[in-house]
Amino acid sequence: MSWATRLLLLALGLALFLPGIGARDLWNPDEPRYAEVAREMRERGDPFVPHLNGRLYAEKPPLHFWSIALVSRATGGVDEVATRLPSVAAAIATLFLLFGIARRLFDREVAWISVAVFATSAKILWQGRIGQIDMTLVALVTLAMFAFVRGLTERRDGFFRLFFVAAGLATLAKGPVGLLPPLLSIVAFAFAARRGDLLRRMRIPSGLAIWAAIVLAWLGPAILAAGREYFEIIVLKQNVGRYADPWHHFQPWYYYLTVIPADFFPWAFFLPGAIRIGWRRFLDGERLGYLFALAWVVVTLVFFSLSPGKRTVYILTMYPAMALLVGASFAEIRRSWPSLRGWLVAPAALLALLLTALPAAGYWLVRYRPERFTERLDERLRALEPMGPGLLPLLLALALALSAGALVALLGALRGSPRRTTAGLALGMGAAAVGACLWILPRFDAVKSVRPMAEALAARAAPDEPYAIYPRFDPPVVFYSRRFATEIEGEDALRAFAGAPGRRWLLIERDELTRLEPPLPMVEVARDSDRPDGYALLFAGPATVPAPGD
Prior knowledge:
Layout: H1 3-17, H2 31-44, E1 51-52, E2 55-56, H3 63-75, H4 80-105, H5 108-119, H6 122-127, H7 134-154, H8 158-174, H9 180-192, H10 196-202, H11 204-226, H12 228-244, H13 255-263, H14 271-283, H15 288-305, H16 319-335, H17 342-368, H18 374-384, H19 391-414, H20 418-440, H21 445-448, H22 451-460, E3 467-470, H23 475-481, H24 490-498, E4 504-509, H25 510-515, E5 523-527, E6 535-540
Parallel strand pairs: 3-4
Antiparallel strand pairs: 1-2, 4-6, 5-6
Helix pairs in contact: 1-4, 2-3, 2-4, 2-23, 3-4, 4-5, 4-7, 5-16, 5-20, 7-8, 8-11, 9-10, 9-15, 11-12, 14-15, 14-16, 15-16, 17-19, 19-20, 22-23
């Protein structure tokens, strides 16, 4: 890979994922939790056993928390930027790795198209700039697959060792899902391609020993420090139990087929054609790369579909493979033009219709047939009021960017240029995503962030005065107040806390406050924006209500 290519990939990644990462507060459910775990890990000086609110946190392995804590050394502390930079770095790293995979299995044209497809799919544009674990997992799984592809194409078996090293690191990020789907994908690929020699060259038993050594380098000291309970939660409950017998996120077996069109938007429109073209070319004996990408997608999809509990981020590790399929199919369409033109023109036309004609029709109906939409529109506009004036023109501008990109893509498709189709859609998606992150998402702090209430608490309550959160523990309050909360469960515990002697504080959701009868013996001193799940800050104690800073 030339330096010019490296610089272009880096510039693409920075332009897409870096702008606006510190422009908004940390939002539930995961960002403030992971940030607080990293902050406590750094303050405690304990890298092996994560803690949250001063208590053992056994839901996730520590690698992502290590990343946040490490970045915070450069940013001056755990903040919004430090929390999200690991995901930005992981997304950019995945672009490099995907380029390397595509170039080795296909060519540079496929590599560039695949990178553009991956980077500008809707789910990646979001996950690559938020403080969650999943982008780190994607990067490490892609690193494992990159190592395998190098071992396959260069016949250098040492790279197969690197596969298990990367899988070990991926396991430290999010558990055994960092090993099982990619390894099973390779096994399926080897059998389908009748390449049993690959499995022998990989020396899977010794590779698993490498993987286990990496995992145990953390898990062993963690269990010694935290005890058997930690092992039972982090290994048995959070991994084996979450997959085989989950307690939430129940979805039908076909769930992921219903979310891919939106999460892989707009490229999901080209995916059926990509799969068909790839399968036909593999049957013709032309490309093993198609089979590798298909195995990666199918095995990952089946693996997570078999579990009753499903979330959209679980299948994120197969997005590089879907991008690879689309990129390879675009190159094949160009080479076989016009025989395969329908697989490019029809999806591009449908996208142009959805992103241009339908919004225009919606505007016409609202403008000229308002009697059908006035009531519903007024309700939606009232919901947007806390986010400030001028939001609708900004949304319209982003919609126009998407529409312009879709029209450019359609013109490129009609002229037999998959590259122009890729460029049009990628530029439209990229511009809309960056614009939303800079000018739209920060406005949602007004309805999604609890930072103002946490800071109001910190300004009024002395460091040694207890506070509680009701009806459930809320990590952003702990993170932004920089003090631990008293954890209570149920109304009886709430009333016991409210009636206890001494000065104490309570953050309670306002709908819960109005429901309580009789009222709590506490005084309301502050409240946040007017929404049902907003908080009220209550105070009880022998003295008068303290002013901020007292």
